[in-house]
Every structure is written in structure tokens, then in C-alpha cells.
Design goal:
binds fe (ii) ion; single chain; binds the ligand C=CC1=C(C)c2cc3[nH]c(cc4nc(cc5[nH]c(cc1n2)c(C)c5CCC(=O)O)C(CCC(=O)O)=C4C)c(C)c3C=C; Rossmann fold; 4-stranded parallel sheet; Ferrochelatase_AS; globular; about 525 residues; alpha/beta; 4 domains
Length: about 525
């Protein structure tokens, strides 16, 4: 346990590094540790992300206790980041005071977005694959991002459409996210924080740009940015934050608006308890609840995101599962459990173990009862309603599993929404704390958690990653499937290059190219 004190936000005096006591060396052996400490917003944000429990200071008290507890399961590379942040991070004043009447608070919920009709599917997929955080091309080939996105989206659309058709002809994401926004707004009002809540989707309506326009029209002065992904990934929250950053950088109003980001919140007590409640409830539906294997299934990311770009997604996911299991154990629920990753796209290696392979393996080992728990997302969507409820359920029965259950996504669970409201309120004192000048704001868009810094911590060299839908790669590969996929994509790329350079070819004949007439 490391415990320090955090300067209250009521103070407006600047502090200097000399106010930080020289801490003794912090090693994993230093379990109990106390010293007075002023945390910069960035330090606090990082500490909150890597620590199980960081009590954010209240508005009125002079100093507030921060409890940062690190457990064995805290990943080794994050601990030094947290400690570094605690010890060496800048100690700027936190210039916010109590809320004043003219403040207009906004909360921007970031989410992925989904096609609302079958006609939307291909353009939605285009937007997704055109995102350089989803398909990362070598710099030299960046000009191919859009043609390639067009090509892949056209190829994938029929399969995706089938999926969306089977869940009612479109994604429920917009409806659910809007409902969450409304519930969050109500919860904030009940807690005496009159805020407007906006929804900004990355790949479909209402786009992030549309939400930002509304935020400007409404004259919001303090904005809390809250990605609706419990765990951070470069491909989800990271992508949305990068987009926001580029929007903010070019906009005079936004550069001057104070704002803050809650990068991930999987460790929050309200979220963990809400997940445990749902699991406990679903377990009761089995004849022999204690024999059920709890199967956490998270959306995967390509392995290279974690191993080469430093995406904390896997570490955060594992810690999240640990925390839920700890909570269940407190309730004397000690079922066997496992974590696997679903929804891989393309022939590159994704995070393992894969959900489908794990289900087959559990069946082979004689497991008879499985409870699937979608863990990376808080709304029902195609991957819960189709992939888990239909495909994996069928696979489970084929593999010898006899009893199947699935935990619903959190949606508008009151405890969860109330906890999100608390997260927003706790972050308010840090709104705008880091941006001391327009210039600084332009360079580092999102003050708390400075997105640039945050991303840089994971993705320091912005290295090019093998795209999730592989374009090409020379050399020996692990399987014939991979090799075939790569050879095919190489051929496709050559054709695409020829098309783009000559303006002739089968895509032009089909009317797929040119993209803009
Ligand atoms: C934490 C959640 C998610 C991560 C991580 C993620 C990474 C990721 N996804 C793709 C490719 C696709 N994702 C698609 C849809 C989709 N993905 C998520 C969540 C995460 N994605 C959601 C919530 C949805 C929307 C579902 C809906 O109801 O509309 C799709 C389209 C659907 C399909 O055709 O399967 C694709 C494709 C990649 C490549 C990736 C990481 C790099
Ligand atoms: Fe996805």
C-alpha cells in the first residue's frame, strides 16, 4: 500500500517541486508508505489507472488522503509509471474552485457507434477500416488507407450484414448509449451537478464531430470526456481520443474550453460490484451454480498492439477480471473461471486464448456448465447478441457443454450509472488543470491524463503495427492459412496500386473506385 496526500482543488497557489518530500526508494516491498504529496492531474490520472483504489480529494478539505494500493497483479511496467508520476510529475496548481453559477458542465460519452440499418453496414465498415488506429499502414502506404478501407469494407459487408440482419437489422448501440446518457444526466442532477450529457460515436451517427458542434452551441465551459470502454485500448478509447485531439487542436473555442479525460475506469468499485451482481444473479439460474465455469469473454485486439505498441488493454482486462473474482469471493462465490478473447478479424495473431478454442477445450475437459460474461463493453451489441448468444452457444453445445448462460451487458444498471456519475464528479476538480496556456493546450489537447502523453506512454514511437486485416508481409509464416491470406492480400494490393495509378481496372468497372467523383 502506498498512501500519499493529494492537494485539495480549493487551493489556487502554485507549488514547486521543492514541496515534494524526497521519497525513499519505492520497491514492491514498500507495502505501507505515507508521505505528503501534491499530485498533478496527470499523476493522479495515471495513479488512478494503475492503482486499485485512489481516493480523489473532495472539494472543500485542505488536503485529502490518497490511497494507492498496488497488488501482486499490478503489472510490473505500470507500477514504475505510477510511482514515477507520484514522485516526479509536475506539481502545477490546480486552478479550479467551487462550481460557479456561470459554469456550464458537459459530459461527452465516447463510443464506437454501429450501423442502424443494413444499408449503413458498408459505410460504417469503411469508417472503421479507414481509422489508422484500426488498420495501421506503413507511412509510405498511408495514401492507400481509404482505398483499402473501401475494398475491405465492400468485401466484409455481406458477412457483417448477415450478422446485423440476425439481430434485427441494425446495431442497438445508439439506442442504448442514448439511454445511458440520459440516465447519467439524471444521476448527475440528483447529485447536484447540473450537466448536459453528449454522445460522440467514432464510426457512425451521432459522430464525435456532431457532438462537439452541439457542445459549442450550448456554450459548455467545462467538459468531462468519458469513453464508454471500461478498459483502455489504443484501438478504442485511444482512437476516439486521438480524433478529439485533432478536432480540439484546430478550434479556438475548444482550445479555450477546460476539459478532462477519464481514460479508463474498470477498477471502480461501482463497476466491479455491478458486474459481480449480474454474475451472481445469472449463476442462480443454473441447477448447480457452484459447478458453473465463469467464462469472461473480451473483445480481442491484434497481439502486436499489446506487444509492440504497449497497449495496456490486456493488463487492464486481466486486472479487471481479478477484481471481479475478488468481489465474488467476498460473497463466497468461488467458481472456476477463465478469460478468453473473441471477435478477431483477419489473419494476424490476436490476443490469446481465443474464445472459440477455449470453449472447445473446456468441453473436451468435461466442463458441463458455462456462464459467458462479456467484459469489454457495457452495451449489448452484435458481438454479444450474435457471436456469443448464437455462434458460441452453438459451439458450446457441439463441444459437450450442456448448460449455457450469458450475463447481460450493464446497460443502464442503476449502480453502474450512479458510479459513472461519481467518476464524473470526482474528475471535475481537475478539469483544465494542466492547460496553462493556449499554446500548451494546442500541443497537448486533453489536460487531465493529457491524451498525447497518455498515448505516448503506451505508443511512444507510434510504431507501425501489422494491420489487423493483414495487407502483406514477407517471410515465413505460422500457418498455411496466414500465408494464403497474406498472398491474397498482396495480390489485392498490387491490383489496387495498379488501379489507383492507372485509373483502370475491375474496381472502376464495378464503380467502387474512384472514391470521390
Ligand atoms: C473493447 C471493445 C472493442 C475492441 C478492443 C475492438 C477492437 C477492434 N475491432 C475491430 C473490428 C471490428 N469491430 C466491429 C464492431 C465493433 N467492435 C466493438 C468493440 C471493440 N472493438 C463494438 C462495440 C462493435 C460494434 C458492434 C455493433 O453492435 O455495431 C466490426 C464490425 C462488426 C463486424 O463486422 O464484425 C469490426 C469489423 C478491430 C479490427 C479491432 C482492433 C484493432
Ligand atoms: Fe471491434
Amino acid at each position: 500500500m502506498i498512501s500519499g496526500r493529494i492537494q485539495s482543488c480549493t487551493s489556487s497557489s502554485a507549488s514547486s517541486s521543492s514541496t515534494i518530500p524526497h521519497p525513499p526508494c519505492l520497491t514492491s516491498a514498500a507495502r505501507h508508505y505515507k508521505f505528503p504529496l501534491r499530485l498533478s492531474p496527470r499523476a493522479l490520472s495515471i495513479s488512478q489507472r494503475v492503482s486499485r483504489n485512489c481516493v480523489v480529494p473532495r472539494y472543500s478539505s485542505g488536503w485529502a488522503e490518497a490511497q494507492l494500493s498496488f497488488s501482486k497483479s499490478d503489472s510490473k511496467h505500470l507500477l514504475p509509471v505510477a510511482v514515477g508520476a507520484l514522485v516526479t510529475s509536475n506539481t502545477q496548481a490546480i486552478p479550479t474552485g467551487p462550481l460557479v453559477a456561470e459554469e456550464k458542465i458537459g459530459v461527452l460519452l465516447l463510443n464506437l457507434g454501429g450501423p442502424e440499418t443494413l444499408e449503413d453496414v458498408q459505410p460504417f465498415l469503411f469508417n472503421l477500416f479507414a481509422d489508422p488506429d484500426i488498420i495501421r499502414l506503413p507511412r509510405l502506404f498511408r495514401f492507400l488507407q481509404k482505398p483499402l478501407a473501401q475494398f475491405i469494407s465492400v468485401l466484409r459487408a455481406p458477412k457483417s450484414k448477415e450478422g446485423y440482419a440476425s439481430i434485427g437489422g441494425g446495431s442497438p448501440l445508439r439506442r442504448i448509449t442514448d439511454a445511458q446518457a440520459e440516465e447519467l444526466r439524471k444521476s448527475l442532477w440528483v447529485k447536484n451537478v447540473p450537466a448536459k450529457v453528449y454522445v460522440g460515436m467514432r464510426y457512425w451517427h451521432p459522430f464525435t464531430e456532431e457532438a462537439i458542434e452541439q457542445i459549442k452551441k450550448d456554450g459548455i465551459t467545462k467538459l468531462v470526456v468519458l469513453p464508454l470502454y471500461p478498459q483502455f485500448s489504443i484501438s478504442t478509447s485511444g482512437s476516439s481520443l486521438r480524433l478529439l485531439e485533432s478536432i480540439f487542436r484546430d478550434d479556438e473555442y475548444l482550445v479555450n474550453m477546460r476539459h478532462t479525460v477519464i481514460p479508463s475506469w474498470y477498477q471502480r468499485e461501482g463497476y466491479i460490484k455491478s458486474m459481480a451482481n449480474l454474475i451472481e444473479k445469472e449463476l442462480q439460474k443454473f441447477d448447480l451454480p457452484e459447478k458453473v465455469v465463469i467464462f469472461f469473454s473480451a473483445h480481442g485486439v491484434p497481439l502486436a498492439y499489446v506487444e509492440e505498441a504497449g497497449d495496456p488493454y490486456k493488463a487492464e482486462m486481466e486486472e479487471c477480471v481479478d477484481l471481479i473474482i475478488e468481489e465474488l469471493e467476498k460473497r463466497k462465490i468461488t467458481n472456476a473461471y477463465t478469460l478468453a478473447y473473441q471477435s478477431r478479424v483477419g489473419p494476424v495473431e490476436w490476443l490469446k486464448p481465443y474464445t472459440d478454442e477455449t470453449i472447445v477445450e473446456l468441453g473436451r475437459k468435461g466442463v458441463k456448465s458455462l456462464l459467458a460474461v462479456p467484459i469489454s463493453f457495457v452495451s449489448e451489441h452484435i458481438e454479444t447478441l450474435e457471436e456469443i448468444d448464437v455462434e458460441y452457444k452453438e459451439l458450446a453445445f457441439e463441444s459437450g457443454i450442456e448448460n449455457w448462460g450469458r450475463v447481460p451487458a450493464l446497460g443502464c444498471e442503476p449502480m453502474f450509472i450512479s458510479d459513472l456519475a461519481d467518476a464524473v464528479i470526482e474528475s471535475l476538480p481537475y478539469v483544465g488543470a494542466m492547460a496553462v496556456s493556449n499554446l500548451e493546450a494546442r500541443q497537448s489537447l486533453v489536460p487531465l491524463g493529457s491524451v498525447e502523453e497518455l498515448l505516448a506512454a503506451y505508443d511512444s514511437q507510434r510504431r507501425e503495427l501489422p494491420p489487423p486485416v493483414t495487407v502483406w508481409e514477407w517471410g515465413w509464416t505460422k500457418s498455411a492459412e496466414t500465408w494464403n491470406g497474406r498472398a491474397a492480400m498482396l495480390a489485392v494490393l498490387v491490383l489496387l496500386l495498379l488501379e489507383v495509378t492507372t485509373g483502370e481496372g475491375f474496381l472502376h468497372q464495378w464503380g467502387v473506385l474512384p472514391l470521390f467523383r
